[in-house]
Structure prediction request, 150 residues.
Amino acid sequence: MVEVMNARIGSTEDLIRDLAADDEAVGWLKSVPGIGKFFSVLVRYEVDDITPFRSPKKFASYTGLLPSTYASGSRQEHGRLTKQGNKHLRWALVEAVTPAVVKSPWLRRYYERIKRRRGAKDARSATARKMAERGAPRGGPPPVMEQSNQ
Prediction:
């Protein structure tokens, strides 16, 4: 049983290594704090083409990491996460928060500030949203995110 599991883990690691090899998009995504080889491959193949996202905020919205908004007249409230986006991207970004706050002092300060006010769960979600916005291109899509035909 253990040998079978080790073989499966090895083949999965080989697949991730092959998908990440010579892929500029994966290298670009790995530059975001907390996003390693596995998460960069996951994000790259879940998003595939980043051209529909005109801004980092639109990409964060696609992940479902933005709070819902209730507005009436001049009153505006923010509620729970919309969860309307891609659940795999949302999961990957929330999981990547822990290594990100270890690596990036800026993200650590942001996480701690939210954690003091709203708690650890909200801080993880807010930091994941911030990571999505930082990882998204500014001023248009980078050419490296387009799918290559192999």
